[in-house]
Design brief:
Helix content of chain A: under 10%
Helix content of chain B: under 10%
Number of helices of chain A: 0
Shape of chain B: globular
Radius of gyration of chain B: 14 Å
Number of strands of chain B: 12
Structural class of chain B: mainly beta
Order of helices and strands of chain B: EEEEEEEEEEEE
Order of helices and strands of chain A: EEEEEEEEEEE
Radius of gyration of chain A: 13 Å
Oligomer: heterodimer
Chain lengths: 113, 114
Amino acid sequence: DAGVIQSPRHEVTEMGQEVTLRCKPISGHDYLFWYRQTMMRGLELLIYFNNNVPIDDSGMPEDRFSAKMPNASFSTLKIQPSEPRDSAVYFCASSLGLYNEQFFGPGTRLTVL
Amino acid sequence: AQSVAQPEDQVNVAEGNPLTVKCTYSVSGNPYLFWYVQYPNRGLQFLLKYITGDNLVKGSYGFEAEFNKSQTSFHLKKPSALVSDSALYFCAVRVTSGTYKYIFGTGTRLKVLA
């Protein structure tokens, strides 16, 4: 298995633009997580899905952030409009079941100018 | 409030010496505890976990961790450090507060000196 796949790996955009981050979880995993990592705030859970259904989005910082999982093999995290303070590394992770470890993708480094 | 703490921002250890990276937690109910490692420009990688059973858990790359319920700790250890162990280490706890959720510690940077 190729592991969790994220695209793009790097994204540079200007303030006000829409940004879409993509994730393909490991086949067969039923949980998908989106995290944000910054020096100031560390690793933050934004939202997670179970069987494609959003379970907890309490970590999503603002209405500018939205996430979808239209099927078991694809998820998106969208920021619209983007702001410089959204600059961070965004990770997607997946797991099989509630009790097992998460497998992280390589991350998307987002820079908003 | 449910939380996990890594009291040291950085740990330095000489190659060949034993290493310990500390983690304490505060959760209601039985804890589910994890250690992850992050190398530069990479995602986190799972090292080991404690769910139940033996308090000493063995994981990848020769790492182990000891669950101590009375001290609410889950310290990561390795008998002999390698330079290649230098990385950022995260402790995580699974909590239940309405919904299942992971809380990650702030991370400890381990530097192994040759």
